[in-house]
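Risk register update: the risk of archive-format incompatibility is retired. Evidence:
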Amino acid sequence: MLLGEIVIVALEALRANKLRSLLTMLGIIIGVGAVITMVALGSGAQKSVQDRIQALGPTLLSVYPGQSFMRGVASGARVSLTLDDDTALANNARYITAVVPELSANLQVQQGNQNVNVNIVGTTPAYASMHAYTITAGRMFTAGDDAARRRVAVVGSAIPQMFNSNRDAMIGQEILIRGISFEIIGVLSEKGSQGSFFNPDEQILVPLQTARYRLIGTDRLRSITAQATDLNSMNLAIRNQTDILATFQQTTETFKYLLAGIAAVSLLVGGIGIMNIMLVSVTERTREIGVRKALGATRFNIMFQFLVEALVLCLAGGLIGVLLGSLGAIVLSQLAHWNTLISPLAILLAFVFSAAVGLFFGIWPARRAAALDPIIALRYE
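Archived output:
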């Protein structure tokens, strides 16, 4: 028989049993769809984390107060960071383009009859640009505001909602920080929670000198943020955003592969289902196989037909699974607002794997059909 004729016979056999063919494909459809959706979720989570870390600034170095040691033994006292350290770092550090001090405390903020406890950060005007913020309403305070110790504040994007207000309406309003009146002059862009207890959208920025002399009353800094010249200079840091980014990427990559592995089990189960159905099909069509062998069909012809049937089932199931998996990722993104990223590589691998499953699990039924003795097969009832 010609190969084209064998393929036509195989397709006719599948068409003659539409329901069984559909049920056989179901395992592959679910497996491929699950792989596509799970990898899309994992890739989306990884990209979301990467974007958030990048938003913090990939060349930022965070300097924090350290532990003091005496003769190699850590003491209970902590080494303080002060404005003098900030000045020394700005004047003497190499590979640094900008330095921003951060003086902070959690303080009570009141507007009308509403009270919230949020992080108040005393800093310089360069804070917003260094941390990749934009001002979505109003303006950032200036060096003149800082020098004059003016009582002005720039609030995080979540602050208006905490006071049941909106971004534009907050501009020009008065709030009380530790009982001291401040005018809101700007609203920062949204950053989103960075996966810790600190949410950068729930903070209020005030001029450094205002915080030092009017609110907090100390020059001991929470941290100093320095901006390196480039990524190649980041190895000078004690702690930097690149390290955090690498850690989160490794974590989310492991999570992505775990999801893909779980979904791949469905493909394996689907392949076993195809093998079972094909074995049943061989038994049901024993007499047909005997007739074809008696008419001159070779072992290769019989084996090739059953392999084609298994392969078509897997490829058709794989194609439907890719479509459903991609649709599932889009639906989760639109309705559940989950971050998803459909990977062309995942689609290709799932499709190729479905074909491999068809070949692997189709070989045994095909060989069993091809090995039937034509005389015994013709007598089979």
